[in-house]
């Protein structure tokens, strides 16, 4: 739904003239305070996350385990994608100082998904080398939770929707120009929700499946340039999209001064600290085959599915109804949908 407005950004970043896109839904697996990438083994972790993907998600996510082989179900459309994707959670702060979790809206043409995210894997045509799919044990982090100002080489893109209709067509038209996108949380009331897209790096050093900071083994190329010599291997452009249902929180609940009332679970009211984690978990070599074939899959249509094998014969799909049945109970058990006196974990709100 939004991908064409982001194509220019991806093209410039990857210096490509044509790209191919896998776009699919991943409904909610669980929402809880666990972060096995940044805080492995810690229960609970400092702030709340929304998690989608395979049911092998756990407190530690031991990198020696191939989660593509250990997971038994996934919330994603592609039934061989047992990867896990997670981001911070958006909260509304009312004028009386209490907080409530903002739910997600399923994406256009993916409306059967129960909240969650839309996931994109993008590969260009005119690349100097093949696109190398990730390997078991690979993981990475995009963004920095502590940021309150723009981060060099990384952006989130936000869009404020005025409304949407019964067919989940959003206004303003998400296929339009990216001029309405911002790199910080919108400051106005968004009756159709707030969309946020988070982009992962596209270059890898070809050696390390992870590094202590979960970033140094990957890199963003300079705009219009190929991958740097330090990270010469081109990997798929992964980005994830969430639409937060901000319409439920009308202006009567906003702070009396009209200031922006939304804050991410790590205490970020700016949006610059929004971040995402990725742990690879595709089964077998399906993702590599899809990259080699430059598969294009944009929509998950109502059942029966009309893409794959036509869209990408190398990948297997499942109905969204089946995907929605894959879920986990909270390990770090705490309330999700009540009004709270503080952000989960008593995370302080910081502006710098």
UniProtKB/TrEMBL annotation:
Keyword rRNA processing: no
UniProt source species: Hymenoscyphus albidus
UniProt signal peptide: 1-18
Protein name: DUF1996 domain-containing protein
Location of the DUF1996 domain: 35-282
Keywords from the UniProt entry: Signal
């Amino acid at each position: 739904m939004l991908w064409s407005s982001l194509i220019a950004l991806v093209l410039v970043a990857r210096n490509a003239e044509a790209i191919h896109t896998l776009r699919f839904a991943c409904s909610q697996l669980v929402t809880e305070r666990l972060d096995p990438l940044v805080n492995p083994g810690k229960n609970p972790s400092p702030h709340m996350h929304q998690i989608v993907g395979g049911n092998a998600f756990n407190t530690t996510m031991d990198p020696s385990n191939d989660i593509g082989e250990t997971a038994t179900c996934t919330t994603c459309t592609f039934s061989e994608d047992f990867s896990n994707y997670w981001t911070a959670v958006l909260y509304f702060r009312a004028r009386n100082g209490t907080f409530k979790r903002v739910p997600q809206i399923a994406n256009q043409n993916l409306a059967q998904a129960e909240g969650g995210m839309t996931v994109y894997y993008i590969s260009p045509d005119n690349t100097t080398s093949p696109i190398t799919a990730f390997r078991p044990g690979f993981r990475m982090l995009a963004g920095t939770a502590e940021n309150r100002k723009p981060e060099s080489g990384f952006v989130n893109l936000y869009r404020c929707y005025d409304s949407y209709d019964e067919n989940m067509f959003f206004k303003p038209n998400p296929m339009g120009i990216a001029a309405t996108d911002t790199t910080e949380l919108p400051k106005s009331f968004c009756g159709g929700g707030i969309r946020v897209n988070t982009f992962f790096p596209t270059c890898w050093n070809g050696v390390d499946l992870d590094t202590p900071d979960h970033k140094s083994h990957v890199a963003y190329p300079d705009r219009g340039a190929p991958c740097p010599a330090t990270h010469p291997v081109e990997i798929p452009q992964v980005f994830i999209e969430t639409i937060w249902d901000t319409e439920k929180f009308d202006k009567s609940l906003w702070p009396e001064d009209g200031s922006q009332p939304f804050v991410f679970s790590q205490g970020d009211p700016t949006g610059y600290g929004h971040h995402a984690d990725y742990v690879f978990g595709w089964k077998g070599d399906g993702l590599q085959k899809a990259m080699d074939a430059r598969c294009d899959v944009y929509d998950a249509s109502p059942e029966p599915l009309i893409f794959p094998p036509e869209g990408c014969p190398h990948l297997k799909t499942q109905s969204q109804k089946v995907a929605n049945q894959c879920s986990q109970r909270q390990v770090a058990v705490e309330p999700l949908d009540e009004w709270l006196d503080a952000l989960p974990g008593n995370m302080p709100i910081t502006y710098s």
